[in-house]
Amino acid sequence: MSTLGSIAIGIAIAEAGEEAETLISEARKLGYKAIRSQVGSMSMDKVIAAIETASRREGIISDTYHQEHALYHAIIDALLGVCRGQLELGNIVRTVGLSYSVVCGPIKSDCNREENWIMVVLYGTIGAPIKGFEHEAIGLGTYHIDTR
Amino acid sequence: MSTLGSIAIGIAIAEAGEEAETLISEARKLGYKAIRSQVGSMSMDKVIAAIETASRREGIISDTYHQEHALYHAIIDALLGVCRGQLELGNIVRTVGLSYSVVCGPIKSDCNREENWIMVVLYGTIGAPIKGFEHEAIGLGTYHIDTR
Amino acid sequence: MSTLGSIAIGIAIAEAGEEAETLISEARKLGYKAIRSQVGSMSMDKVIAAIETASRREGIISDTYHQEHALYHAIIDALLGVCRGQLELGNIVRTVGLSYSVVCGPIKSDCNREENWIMVVLYGTIGAPIKGFEHEAIGLGTYHIDTR
Amino acid sequence: MSTLGSIAIGIAIAEAGEEAETLISEARKLGYKAIRSQVGSMSMDKVIAAIETASRREGIISDTYHQEHALYHAIIDALLGVCRGQLELGNIVRTVGLSYSVVCGPIKSDCNREENWIMVVLYGTIGAPIKGFEHEAIGLGTYHIDTR
Amino acid sequence: MSTLGSIAIGIAIAEAGEEAETLISEARKLGYKAIRSQVGSMSMDKVIAAIETASRREGIISDTYHQEHALYHAIIDALLGVCRGQLELGNIVRTVGLSYSVVCGPIKSDCNREENWIMVVLYGTIGAPIKGFEHEAIGLGTYHIDTR
Amino acid sequence: MSTLGSIAIGIAIAEAGEEAETLISEARKLGYKAIRSQVGSMSMDKVIAAIETASRREGIISDTYHQEHALYHAIIDALLGVCRGQLELGNIVRTVGLSYSVVCGPIKSDCNREENWIMVVLYGTIGAPIKGFEHEAIGLGTYHIDTR
Fold it and tell me: CA–CA separation, F126 vs D83, rounded Å?
C-alpha cells in the first residue's frame, strides 16, 4: 500500500530525470495523476503561478473553481512549510529554488477510491540571494478535490 | 554527494525497522549523527519535549544552551510545516502522529565539514481525533549548531 | 439571486427566534442546508467542537472525512476573523459569545448548482471576561464540500 | 436598541443604492457617523489608502494622529478577517472586490454615549484573478476613537 | 524633551530598586503615570492578568472598557515582541521572566498634552525551563487611551 | 556584570553621537563587537539589507553562511517586535525610522566566554507616512553565532 504523501514526497525529492520519471510512472499505474517540475524565484506570486499553470496544462486539475481553490490552498500550505512563519520571499531578502510535485488521488492507494485529494509538495533550498548561503526546506499541503 | 536534508527527510519518511536503520547507518558512515523515533499527541509541548529528550539522551546535542537553542528552533520550524499557519494542536481540536529524524552534520556531505547544522524533520499525519479523519503532513527546520 | 455568503451572514446576525427561523426557511426553499446556534467559551476547542457536533447532528455534513475536513477549515477561517491575528482565547485572557450559521449549497443560488460549498459565519462579542468589556466581531470561512 | 456592529455590518452587506442609503440615514438619526463605499484591488496598500482617504474626506475621523491610528488598526483587523491568516493579496495571487462601511459611535445605541468607537466592516469577494474563481469574505475591526 | 517610549523602556530595563524608582519619579514630574513590576510564568494568561491587575490597582487605567481595551492591546503587542512570531509560552515549552513598565501620557513630553497614550514595555528573559538556557527579549505596545 | 541585551538595547536607544559612542567603547572594552546606525524605509528588504551590509562591512560577522544566517534570523526576530504581528511595511501603508545596534559576544559579560551570540536591537518609530502620525517601537532578536 502507498499513501498520497509518500508518493508526492517521493517525487518531489527525487533527482530530476530517470529517478523522478520512474516514480511518476509507478504513481500513474496506481491510478494517481502526478507531475513534477522546478521553480526558482524571489517572488512568491511567480512560484504560485508556475505551479498553477503547470497543473492546469498537465490536466491535474480541470478548469473549475473548486479544483483551482483546492490546488491554491494546497500550494499556500506547502509554502508555509518552506517559509516557516512568514509567507514572504524577496521582501524579506530571501529566495527559493524548488522542485515540486502535484499529485491527485486517494489518501491511501488501497481504499476509499471515491475521494480524491490533491497534494502539493515543495522541496529545495531557501536562503539569501548569495550562492551557497541557503539551506533545505520542505512543505506539503493537501485538500480534497473531488469525489468520483 | 548527499545533503543534510536528503538524509534527514529520507530517515523520517522511511518505514520503521530495517529501512530506517539502513539509512541511519549510511548517514553515520558519512559522518552524520542521526536518530529516528515516533511521537503522537494532541499536546504541542509533549511533541517538543519528546524530541528534545531523545536528542539529548542519544547524544545528538550536548548539554549546552546554544545547542539546545538550535534544536528548539529547528523543532519549532518543523512544526510550522506540519501545522501550516497556527502552532496549535489540541486547542484547535487536532492531533498528530509523527515519525521524526534529528540529524547533525554539514549541509552537504562533500564540503565545508567544519560547519555543523542540526535538522529536524517531522512526517506523519495530522487531523481530527477520529480514526481515518487525518491526512499527511511534513515539516523541516534547521539551524547551525557548531563549528568543528 | 442570493449568494451563499448573504444567506450565511444573514442567518448568523439575525436575532434568535422568528427572524432567524424565517431566514433559515427561505434558505432551505432555495435548496440550501442551513443551521444556526450559539456558543460561548474561553476555550477554542469547545467552540470548534460545538459547531462540528451541531453540523453532524443536523445533517449539514455526512460522516465522511472530506466533509469534516471542509467544515473544520471553514470554522478555523471564521475564527481567524473573530480573533484577528492570534487563534487564541482563554490563554490570552479573552472570551467569546457567538451566534453561528453553517450553510451548505452553491456559491450563487442561480447557477452552477453542481458545486456545493460549506460556509461558517461566526458573529458575536469578544473581550475580557468582565461583563460589558467586549466588542463585536465577525468571521467567515468557506470551502468546497461536494459535487452533486 | 442597535449595536455598532449590527449597524456597520448591515451597511457593508447592503446592496448599493437605496438599501444602503436607508441604513446610513437610520444610523445617522441614532447619532452615528457612517459611510459606505467600494474598493477592488490586488494591492493591500490601495485598499487601506482608499478607506483612509474616504474616512477623512467624509469627516468620519478628524486630522489627529490618535483617530487615524484607531482607523488604521480597525482596517487591519478587518483585513485579517478577509485574508484569514496572511495579510497579503497580489503577492500570493489573489484579489479582492469589497464593499465597506466605516461607522463611528457608541458600542450600543442606548447607553454610554460618551465613548465613541470606530468600526470598519469589509464584505465582498476574494479569489484568483479569474472571473468567477472567487468566494465571499467578511472582516470587522473596531477600536476606541474618542470620548465626548 | 522626553518621549513616552524612552521613559517606558528606561523604566523597564532599569535595575529594580533605586535606579527604577528615580526614573519613575522623573516620569511623574513630567506628568506621566508610571509603574514597574515583575512577572515570571509559563502561562501567557498569568502574565497578562498580572499586568492588568497592577495597572488597575495603581490607577494607571480607570475602570472603563476603552482604557482596559487599550491596555490589553498594548500588552499583546509587547508580548509579540517577546515571543517573536507565536504568542505562546508553556505549550511550546518556554518560560519568561520579565520586568515591565506601564506608562501613560503624551507621546512627547513637550507637545500635544491633550492626547494620552498607554505604553507597555516588557523586558527580561525567555527560554527553556532550565536555568541558564534562556536569552533576553524585549517588547513594546502602545495605544491611545484618552484625550484630556 | 553586563548582559548582551543591556548592551545592545542601551546602544540602540542612545542618542546618536557622544552618548552612543561612549556605550560602544565600553562594550568593546568588555570584549564585545558592536555597531550602531540608522535606517528608515517603507521597504522591509531595504531595512534588512542595510543592517546586513553594515554588519559585514564593520566586521561584526565574517563571510560565512552560518554567521549570515544567525544575523538574518536576529534581524527578522527584531522586526517582529517592531511590526507586532505582520512582517510588512509599505504594503500595509506604514513606514519605519529606526536606530539599530548589532552586538556580538557572550550572553553575560562575566561567564561562558566561549559562546558568542549575535543580537540585533531596532528602536525608533513606526506609523503612517505622515509626519507626526507615528509612535515608538522596539524589537530584539538573538541567535548563537560561534564558539571560540
Answer: 23
- Tell me, yes or no, if E132 comes closer than 8 A to chain A by beta carbon: no
The three cell numbers of residue D140 are 470587522
Going by the DSSP 8-state scheme, the letter that residue C86 receives in this structure is: -
Q: How far apart are CA F34 and CA F11, in angstroms?
A: 9
What CA–CA distances, in Å, run from C96 to C31, C44, C119, D40, D84? 31, 9, 20, 31, 18
Instruction: Please check whether residue E92 touches B, CB under 8 A.
Output: yes
DSSP string, B89-102: SGGGT-EEEEEEEE
CA distance F139 to E138: 6
Please tell me which residue of chain E has the smallest CA distance to F111. Answer: E132
- The cell for A120 is 502539493
Which of A66, A68, A142 to probe the C interface (max C CBs under 10 A)? A66
Buried b (16+ CB within 10 A) or exposed e, E126-142: bbbeeeebbbbbbbbbb
Question: Which residues does chain A have within 8 Å of residue F49's beta carbon, measured at their own beta carbons?
Answer: 93
User: Domain limits at A57?
Assistant: 4-147
F98 interface with E at CB cutoff 8 Å: no
Q: What amino acid occupies position D43?
A: S
Residue in A with minimal Cα distance to D42: A45
Q: At a CB cut-off of 8 Å and minimum separation 6, what does F15 contact?
A: none
Contact in structure between E95 and E89 (CB atoms under 8 Å): yes
Nearest CA to B74 out of F147, F144, F83, F65 is that of F144
Q: What is the pLDDT of residues F79-130, one digit of tens each?
A: 999 999 899 999 999 999 999 999 999 999 887 667 899 999 999 999 999 9
Chain D, chain F: beta-carbon pairs less than 8 Å apart: 33
A87 and B85 Cβ atoms separated by less than 8 Å: no
Cα(D74)–Cα(D71) distance, integer angstroms: 5
Does B17 contact D at CB distance below 8 Å? no
Give CA–CA dist F51/E101, Å, rounded.
29
Task: Of B80, B55, B91, give the one whose Cα is nearest residue B137.
Answer: B80
Asked if F5 has any chain D CB less than 8 Å from its own CB, the reply is: no
Domain count, chain B: 1
* Chain segment B62-72, per-residue pLDDT in tens: 999 999 999 99
Within 8 A by CB and 6+ apart from B111, the residues are none
Residues of A in contact with F65 (CB under 8 A): 127, 132-134
pTM beyond 0.95, yes or no: yes
Task: Say which CATH number the domain at D76 has.
Answer: 3.40.1510.10
Q: What element of type H or E holds E29?
A: helix E18-29
How far off is chain B from D125, nearest CA to CA, in Å? 22
CA-based nearest residue in chain D for residue B86:
D85
Q: What are the E-state strand segments in chain C?
A: 33-41, 95-105, 115-127, 134-147
A12 inside 8 A of chain B by CB: no
∠ CA A4-A7-A12, rounded to 5°:
120
Query: Phi and psi of B111, rounded to 5°?
Result: -160, 160
CA dihedral over C80, C84, C86, C91, signed as positive or negative: negative
User: Which DSSP helix (H) or strand (E) runs through E112?
Assistant: none
Which of B39, B44, B66 has the highest number of chain E CBs within 10 A, making it the mutation to test binding with E?
B44
Encode A86-108 in three state secondary structure.
CCCCHHHCCEEEEEEEEEEECCE
CB-based contact (8 Å) between C91 and chain B? yes
Helix or strand (DSSP H, E) at C21 = helix C18-29
User: Mapping DSSP to helix (H, G, I), strand (E, B) and coil, where does residue C139 land?
Assistant: strand
Q: Is the CB of C53 inside 8 Å of chain B's CB atoms?
A: no
Q: Is the ipTM of this complex over 0.90?
A: yes
Residues E8 and E51: beta-carbon distance below 8 Å: no
- pLDDT tens for each residue of C18-36: 999 999 999 999 999 999 9
Residue written as cell 554567521? Answer: F67
